[in-house]
Design a protein that fits this description.
heterodimer, A: mainly alpha, MetI-like fold, 11 helices, 0% strand, B: alpha/beta, Rossmann fold, 2 domains, four-stranded antiparallel beta sheet, 8 helices, 10 strands
């Protein structure tokens, strides 16, 4: 309770801003005579959206499944390749420049191809999410596992410890903060990938819902869909941030003190 | 009898072809067991390179290093090492960092708890055992790093400008700590520094290195009694040593 009051006390300006923002939105619509098929008011979005709640919740689940599956696969592949590339000079000279050059192409451009290759099901969406999430994760992981200080490297060499022991005692924990930079960036992109994949070809999910209701001149329902997408994105990002706090509390506290 | 450490015609060249940089040597040095030897020279003279080659942490281009008649080819593990930037990891407390040294060496942590407490006490860090490095001042961090480097009782301690980033007062204090611990445990110490006063205060012998490519200009035996406290530092003999070393470096245009 005390924490909650403290939170309100520190965040009151932000809360006030949001309240002001939605009030302005609500009352500027009649004020400027904006037609509801262009921009609905927040109260109308809530009202119409809640009538469609069952569908919205179901579709959120569909999109969440695609996003989370893709994200986890990208995480495993990204960290795996990241470690492999940082420990193998052959991979560093072949795979690494390959990944860097692919990073330059907008991955989402592949989406229509994947839909045409793999159909409308779950798989092409997961692949697109993996593709969007993989690169920030792998590139940050490579950076993370290559940036151990010279002094620490010499230190562990002087102990004669095995590579495996060194990896778990020093290299892995030292790499985690930079890895999480990639994880967080990928978490933001994950829902974007899933949504666009659904825009292009699907029969369920929030992206599908938004594109259908927009075509039916129902911006109120589109906004309701966007709201659920935002909640989904925030949840995933919040979960990753929470993991960061749990796994590397020393890093968070370091940042706070340095301020 | 042969010397404890024998460095013979040791030389290091980095890169090759046009990018070749002759960093150090050739140089021949002998060090006795339990001796405190300072390697003194201007920055960039290759004194850190020498230290790393002695520890087997860097390959030499030519020449050899021997410990008790055994040629070094690969990292030596019965050493403790300390750098200007400390080797404390931010995710472990002071105690945890000292334990890291033991863990990496596969030693039993339980057997060492008493020892950890003692060594922390000897450098006045006993109240900070459970603090993280980023909660400590630079001087305290270096003292913690010193405990980390010493906890396994290494026969050889390598110090690469460990006080380089500290303020004058803190340096003075930690020098005294070093001296105290060295006098008790008598490890062989190779101390790389560019502070003349520091070298004279701590060492049995100072090896003067020329500007790059570093060669040995001369060795100076410091014949002063330990512990070398303020009293000794104010003595005429101490000043004489410092002055004679200054003259050598003045000759090279370093100071």
């Amino acid at each position: 309770m005390k924490k909650f009051i403290k939170w309100i006390a520190s965040g009151w300006m932000l809360i006030l801003f949001f309240v002001g923002f939605f009030l302005f939105w609500e009352y500027s619509i009649p004020l400027f005579d904006i037609p509801r098929y262009i921009l609905p008011s927040p109260s109308e979005i809530v009202l119409k959206g809640s009538a469609d709640l069952d569908k919205l919740v179901y579709y959120t689940g569909v999109t969440a499944l695609e996003t989370v599956l893709g994200y986890i696969i990208a995480l495993i592949l990204g960290v795996g390749f990241g470690i492999a590339i940082s420990f193998s000079s052959i991979l560093r000279r072949t795979l690494y420049p390959f990944f860097v050059s692919i990073e330059m192409t907008p991955k989402i451009a592949f989406a229509p191809l994947f839909i045409s290759w793999f159909g409308f099901g779950l798989m092409p969406k997961v692949i697109i999410v993996v593709l969007v999430c993989f690169f920030p994760i792998v590139l940050n992981a490579i950076l993370a596992f290559n940036s151990l200080s010279n002094e620490l490297t010499l230190f562990y060499q002087s102990t004669g410890a095995s590579r495996l022991k060194t990896f778990f005692s020093i290299r892995l924990p030292a790499a985690l903060p930079q890895c999480f930079v990639g994880f967080k960036y990928a978490a933001i992109n994950a829902t974007v990938g899933a949504t666009i994949a659904e825009f292009i070809g699907s029969d369920k999910g929030l992206g599908f819902y938004i594109s259908i209701v927009t075509g039916n001149m129902r911006p109120d329902l589109a906004f309701a869909g966007i709201f659920f997408l935002t909640v989904l994105g925030l949840t995933i990002f919040g979960f990753v941030t929470m993991m960061e706090k749990i796994l590397i509390p020393w890093h968070i506290s370091m940042k706070r003190i340095n301020k | 009898m042969k010397n404890f450490i024998e460095v013979t015609e040791l030389k290091k060249v980095f890169g090759n072809g046009e990018d070749e940089v002759h960093a150090f040597g050739p140089a021949t040095i002998n060090i006795n067991s339990g001796e405190f030897v300072s390697v003194l020279g201007p920055s960039g003279c290759g004194k850190s390179t020498l230290m790393l080659m002695v520890a087997g942490l860097l390959d030499s281009t030519s020449g050899k290093v021997e410990f008790e008649n055994k040629v070094v080819n690969g990292p030596k593990t019965d050493i403790g090492i300390m750098f200007q930037d400390n080797t404390l990891v931010p995710w472990r407390t002071v105690r945890g960092n000292i334990e890291l040294q033991l863990e990496l060496r596969g030693l039993n942590l339980k057997d060492y708890q008493e020892k950890i407490n003692n060594i922390l006490k000897s450098v006045n860090l006993d109240d900070f055992a459970d603090r993280f490095p980023n909660e400590l001042s630079g001087g305290m961090q270096q003292r913690a790093a010193f405990c980390q480097a010493m906890i396994h009782d290494p026969k050889i301690i390598l110090l690469d400008e460990p006080l380089g980033k500290l303020d004058a007062m803190t340096r003075e204090k930690i020098r005294a700590d070093f001296q105290k611990l060295w006098m008790v445990k008598k490890p062989t110490v190779i101390f790389v520094t560019h502070s003349i006063e520091e070298a004279v205060q701590l060492s049995n012998r100072v090896i003067l290195i020329t500007p790059r490519p570093g060669k040995i200009d001369r060795e100076i035996k410091i014949d002063l009694p330990y512990p070398r406290d303020l009293q000794i530092k104010r003595s005429a003999k101490f000043t004489e040593y410092v002055n004679s070393i200054q003259e050598v470096f003045h000759k090279y245009g370093v100071i």
